[in-house]
Design a protein that fits this description.
By secondary structure, this protein is mainly alpha-helical. It has two domains: 97 residues, Orthogonal Bundle (DNA polymerase, domain 1), CATH 1.10.150; 133 residues, Intergrase catalytic core (hpI Integrase, Chain A, Orthogonal Bundle), CATH 1.10.443. The radius of gyration is 25 Å and the shape is globular.
């Protein structure tokens, strides 16, 4: 009976109900969280899950996993019990809402400088393996000049490029983008030059992907090691795009739109705001005009 629904049964029902609303990758992550939660709550009637029971889970689980993983599992538990409360009518309130997230360590954003980026691209073009060399450097440049996520970049096809309108359509392919919405970004000058060069190297079919690669992680790691750079990742290229946009004076809202963020620039400001302050401070040193200096000149 529904009134005696066990936790693992609720988890299966909830996962099925959310399958149409989540990207496959997100659904897999949620399923993983439910599986971990079920190790503690398995066999427990949903109606008997109270704050004390969840506190016991918190104490046990907090010592096993990182804060970020804990917070994701807690978020999943909140959603599960909210479903039990609002949809199934099994709970009067949601005790998981009383549990606070753990404070996660702030991740250090590692951004290549312009000279480092040039070194990385040059090293990729000198890759010993010809099969890697022929596409890795171009792909790294594409990521850096577009700001796209890896999954978005590998799905770009020639039909998505409109040179007349100077635009690039980002759909994410069958999996979609992170926020499930397509977007259009401009062909920034460096991005347009790269695309035109690749296009000039041979005929291309509209339905074909621009890049045949799925990842250049290993190629980038090897390239960085060869020239003594930090181990920059695919996502570092997105950071590089953002840092250059900020140095160019682009406002956070515009950058957020290009990145596919829906928060109007809040995340960009929080993640990269210090870069604008640093850039502003360096630019301020050029404001040297005053009466004393003019008389001395």
């Amino acid at each position: 009976m529904t009134t005696c629904l066990l936790f693992e049964e609720l988890g299966a029902i909830w996962l099925e109900s959310t399958s149409a609303d989540l990207k496959p990758s997100s659904h897999v992550r949620r399923a993983g969280c439910v599986k971990q939660l079920a190790r503690f709550f398995k066999g427990t009637p949903v109606r008997s899950i109270n704050l004390q029971k969840i506190e016991a889970w918190k104490v046990k689980r907090s010592g096993d996993i990182a804060a970020r993983t804990f917070n994701k599992e807690l978020e999943t538990l909140r959603l599960l019990l909210r479903y039990a409360q609002k949809v199934k009518g099994l709970l009067l309130d949601n005790p998981a809402e009383e549990i606070e997230n753990r404070k996660a360590a702030v991740a250090t954003v590692r951004i290549p400088g312009k000279e480092q980026f040039c070194q990385l691209v040059a090293s990729l073009r000198n890759e010993p393996q010809a099969a890697v060399r022929c596409g890795a450097a171009d792909f790294a440049e594409f990521l850096a000049y577009s700001g796209l996520r890896l999954g978005e970049a590998i799905e770009i096809r020639w039909r998505d490029i409109n040179l007349e309108l100077n635009s690039l359509l980002v759909t994410g392919g069958e999996k979609g983008t992170k926020n499930h919405e397509s977007r259009t970004i401009p062909l920034f000058p460096a991005l347009r030059r790269l695309i035109e060069r690749i296009k000039s190297e041979g005929p291309h079919v509209a339905e074909e992907r621009i890049f045949k690669l799925q990842t250049i992680r290993q190629a980038m790691a090897s390239a960085c090691e060869r020239v003594g750079l930090p181990n920059f990742t695919h996502h570092a290229m997105r950071h590089f795009f953002c840092s250059n946009a900020i140095e160019a004076g682009i406002d956070f809202k515009a950058i957020a739109g290009w990145l596919g963020h829906k928060d109007g620039g809040v995340l960009v400001a929080r993640t990269y705001g210090h870069l604008r302050n640093e850039h502003s401070s360096s630019m301020a040193l050029k404001m040297t005009f005053d009466v004393v200096n003019e008389r001395a000149a």
